[in-house]
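User: Um, what's this?
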Amino acid sequence: MAKRKAYKTTTIARAKASASKERSARIAKKEKASREAALILKHVLSVGCPTCDAAPGEKCNLATGVPRTKPHRDRRWTAKD
């Protein structure tokens, strides 16, 4: 005779607790990433941009004069060093 398969049952309370733990871990990870991004942006803006000649503390500009959403790659690399 074949063995009966035993299914693991989870109560609703356990499922909610597990989801809550996962959710709080994801939120903590996102908060840490946003803090690191803010620190990195602060470091990047502390140097001048060799591409668009933006002064330290100013945002990089596109060719049209509109501010860029992210600094130029060369500026990020310069700040990294």
Summary: Residues 12 and 18 are 10 Å apart (CA to CA).
